[in-house]
User: Which sequence fits this backbone?
């Protein structure tokens, strides 16, 4: 029989300026409350510490768009390992958060990645502290990258030992099995954002014909090796926007909050295009609700970020996405919605035709969201039961 009113801590990167991570955290809270509405849920960010999801981020005055830096792996990894393992302030914050919890959920999001051992070192500390304090922890709906160094694998194996790893997509399941040499129990679920549809009730101030979510093309270079200059990528968007404006369409341009995304939108599109009354550039979002408002402002969403596309899909929007990395491709394949994705080096005339056609019909494409919701809740019930 399930214990009622558990005190649960969610550990992830939900305080990131990329508010897709806050969307994930909010979705986990919604799913926990759906299983047991007496649950008390609190949040801890691997960088920031404990935080409230309802508290907006403080806008940063960072006006310089950063470039991708390719670093030599092991010097950076050992530096991160030393920095994390000797960070007394982080350890104190973590212990203060963990000590009174009945259960710690590590997830969701793309946490089991090898970012020069930074996340794996942090999670190593989380797992060891939970064992020390005798607080149960579970790995919940995580994304897993394909490649890990021996150092990263060693750290992760200590975190994942004797645990069922709940992943958010098929590729992540394959990757974790490879990392652990097949010696791991895995259940493939879905990204928690499939529960964010409950917030469709948040009404936008204004309705638009299409909402366009902008991502800095530097992300494609970092994560998928797709190279395109910012100037060339911006020109595609500018041509698309101008063609839609010629058709008298009302357009919203938004981002998920990542600083590079926002500055790319501002410096390469906003400042290069002739502004018109039916074109609106959203302010930089400061909480998950801003993302939901942008997505809910239109019945058509054209975007790249997973946590613009997936919530839009859940909210029954007509979705057009750019297939720029493997996690997006894997999740949309699992959902049966791969046809919504186009190659990242898109032709603006093709996107224009799709948007015009979508504007004249109701989107009734089949997907497996309800099936994954049921499976997710079934597994979450198991986790809460211990």
Assistant:
């Amino acid at each position: 029989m399930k214990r009622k009113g558990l005190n649960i801590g969610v550990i992830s990167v939900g305080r990131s300026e990329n508010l897709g991570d806050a969307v994930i955290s909010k979705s986990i809270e919604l799913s926990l409350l759906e299983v047991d509405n007496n649950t008390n849920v609190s949040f801890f960010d691997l960088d920031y510490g404990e935080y409230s999801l309802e508290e907006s981020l403080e806008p940063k005055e960072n006006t310089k768009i950063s470039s991708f830096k390719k670093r030599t792996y092991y010097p950076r990894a050992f530096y991160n390992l030393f920095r994390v393992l000797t960070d007394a302030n982080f350890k104190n914050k973590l212990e203060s958060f963990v000590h009174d919890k009945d259960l710690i959920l590590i997830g969701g999001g793309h946490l089991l990645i090898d970012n020069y051992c930074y996340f794996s070192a942090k999670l190593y500390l989380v797992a060891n502290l939970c064992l020390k304090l005798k607080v149960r922890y579970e790995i919940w709906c995580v994304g897993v990258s394909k490649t890990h160094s021996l150092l990263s694998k060693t750290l992760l194996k200590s975190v994942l030992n004797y645990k069922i790893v709940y992943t958010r997509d098929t590729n992540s399941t394959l990757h974790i099995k490879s990392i652990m040499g097949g010696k791991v129990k895995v259940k493939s679920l879905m990204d928690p954002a499939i529960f964010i549809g409950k917030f469709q009730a948040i009404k936008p101030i204004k309705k638009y014909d299409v909402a366009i979510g902008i991502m800095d093309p530097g992300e494609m270079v970092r994560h998928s090796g797709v190279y395109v200059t910012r100037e060339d990528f911006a020109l595609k968007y500018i041509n698309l926007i101008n063609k839609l404006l010629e058709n008298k369409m009302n357009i919203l341009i938004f981002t998920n909050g990542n600083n590079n995304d926002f500055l790319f939108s501002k410096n390469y599109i906003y400042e290069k295009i002739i502004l018109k009354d039916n074109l609106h550039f959203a302010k930089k979002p400061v909480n998950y609700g801003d993302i939901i408002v942008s997505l809910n402002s239109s019945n058509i969403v054209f975007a790249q970020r997973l946590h613009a596309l997936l919530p839009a899909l859940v909210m029954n929007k007509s979705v057009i996405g750019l297939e720029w990395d493997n996690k997006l491709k894997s999740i949309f394949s699992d959902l049966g919605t791969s046809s919504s994705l186009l190659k990242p080096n898109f032709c603006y005339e093709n996107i224009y035709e799709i948007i015009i056609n979508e504007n004249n019909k109701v989107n009734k494409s089949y997907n497996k969201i309800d099936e994954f919701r049921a499976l997710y809740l079934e597994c979450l019930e198991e986790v809460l039961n211990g």
Residues 200-368 form a domain with the Rossmann fold fold (CATH 3.40.50.2000). The two ends are 10 Å apart (CA to CA). The chain has 14 helices and 14 strands.
